[in-house]
């Protein structure tokens, strides 16, 4: 192979390697004509409809860099679907400090980065708000308490201070729980008996049920019905659902709890005959801090983190969650977990046989 052939072969390899780069890479010559596009760039440029924007944005940016001999960048919003944000950055190639010999341009899809950034911002804003409200109330209550001499009023103010500080503590507890569960450290090797999970969830919600005179009706679960996962997380998820069932029903309501083998995996169902969830809100209830009725939730004492926690537990276990709800009639939440490879199918429950 001659030196020239070797040089060509190595240049070819380099260009092939550029096709593996997820960012779009473009070289334009001094006239602005595209001399090279890697595969990702070609996909952006050739793409149909809205993406025709990308090709013209590249041309414009290249022309601008050639004219100014300065680096330039811009962000392009593509309204999709899917909605995307592309960042274009271009620098002049100037050999030996002479006139622009061409332009090197990179196209990067920054949608995910922007989305995460927005989620993070919202989250911080929400936490601040959720904590500020009760802390603000505490401060006002304390101020009122000073100089108050009537024992009954003092008693009432102190009770309210206690409930507001309980609210702060609950928000912090749930945030810590959410963060622990989100970090995904699920203990995933354990065989978990579902009837034990349900029994423990009932235990944990007993107090809340008594307070609202609610009944938790556990349907018989096959004692051998098992799944593999993190027992503690599963109990938390089921408790949160039962707790909601109690809270969002009139006093004296009934929450039904059952588990069965289904579709090769297992499912857990929590059903209430409570106020239900408006269809427009069903998609949002798993968001952190989302509550259908903020005003009502202040009385029921929710943080809006419970279902976000449930959702993460389900994700950690590769499961799915479905909600059926009708306003005024009630809601049913079903968690479905697949059977992990290499594990015997769970025992079918009597209903299935
Ligand atoms: N079983 C249910 N019945 C009616 N609405 C519910 C039910 N479960 C959840 N929701 C709605 O979804 C919202 C989010 O639930 P969650 O994350 O558990 O928050 P929280 O219970 O702290 O309010 C609740 O505020 C409520 O509006
Ligand atoms: Mg809840």
Strand order of the largest sheet: 2-1-5-4-3
Please work out how many helical segments DSSP would assign: 9
What portion of residues belong to β-strands? 15-25%
CATH C-level name of the largest domain = Alpha Beta
Q: Looking at the structure, what is the overall shape?
A: elongated
Number of folding domains?
Answer: 3
Largest sheet: 5 strands, antiparallel
What's the quaternary structure here?
Answer: single chain
- For the secondary structure, the number of strands is 12
Structural category is: alpha+beta
Helix content: 40-55%
- Ligands bound to this protein structure: adenosine-5'-diphosphate, magnesium ion
Label the CATH architecture of the largest domain.
Answer: 2-Layer Sandwich
Compact summary:
The chain is of the alpha+beta class and 353 residues long. Helix content is 46%, strand content 22%. The chain is built from nine helices and twelve strands.
Chart the SSEs and their pairings.
Layout: H1 3-18, E1 24-29, E2 34-37, H2 39-46, H3 52-68, E3 72-78, E4 84-93, E5 102-109, H4 111-145, H5 151-182, E6 190-193, H6 194-211, E7 215-218, E8 226-229, H7 231-247, E9 254-262, E10 265-272, H8 294-300, H9 306-316, E11 320-326, E12 330-337
Parallel strand pairs: 7-9
Antiparallel strand pairs: 1-2, 1-5, 3-4, 4-5, 6-8, 9-10, 10-12, 11-12
Helix pairs in contact: 4-5, 5-9, 6-7, 7-9
The structure holds adenosine-5'-diphosphate and magnesium ion (MG).
């Amino acid at each position: 192979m001659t030196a020239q052939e070797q040089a060509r072969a190595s240049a070819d390899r380099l260009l092939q390697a550029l096709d593996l780069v997820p960012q779009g890479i473009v070289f334009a010559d001094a006239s602005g004509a595209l001399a090279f596009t890697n595969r990702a760039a070609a996909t952006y440029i050739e793409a149909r409809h809205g993406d025709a924007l990308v090709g013209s944005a590249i041309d414009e940016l290249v022309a601008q860099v050639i004219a100014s001999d300065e680096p330039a960048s811009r962000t392009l919003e593509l309204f999709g679907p899917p909605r995307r944000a592309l960042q274009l950055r271009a620098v002049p190639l100037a050999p030996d400090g002479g006139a622009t010999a061409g332009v090197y341009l990179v196209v990067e899809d920054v949608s995910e980065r922007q989305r995460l950034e927005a989620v993070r911002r919202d989250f911080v804003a929400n936490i601040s708000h959720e904590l500020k409200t009760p802390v603000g109330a505490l401060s006002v209550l304390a101020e009122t308490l000073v100089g108050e001499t009537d024992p009954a009023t003092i008693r009432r103010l102190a009770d309210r201070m206690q409930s507001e500080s309980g609210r702060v503590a609950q928000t912090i507890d749930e945030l810590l729980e959410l963060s622990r569960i989100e970090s995904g450290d699920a203990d995933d090797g354990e065989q978990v008996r579902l009837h034990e999970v349900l029994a423990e969830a009932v235990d944990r919600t007993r107090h809340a049920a008594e307070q609202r005179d609610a009944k938790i009706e556990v349907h018989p679960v096959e004692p051998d019905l098992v799944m593999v996962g993190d027992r503690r997380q599963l109990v938390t998820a089921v408790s949160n659902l039962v707790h909601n069932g109690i809270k969002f029903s009139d006093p004296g309501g009934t929450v039904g709890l059952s588990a069965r083998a289904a579709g090769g995996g297992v499912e857990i169902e929590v059903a209430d005959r409570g106020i239900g969830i408006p269809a427009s809100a069903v998609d949002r209830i798993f968001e952190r801090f989302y509550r259908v009725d903020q005003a009502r939730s202040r009385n029921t004492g929710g943080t809006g983190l419970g279902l976000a926690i449930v959702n993460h537990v389900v994700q950690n276990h590769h499961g799915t969650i479905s909600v059926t709800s009708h306003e005024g009639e009630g809601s049913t939440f079903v968690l479905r977990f697949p059977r992990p490879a290499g594990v015997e199918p769970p025992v079918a429950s009597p209903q299935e046989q």
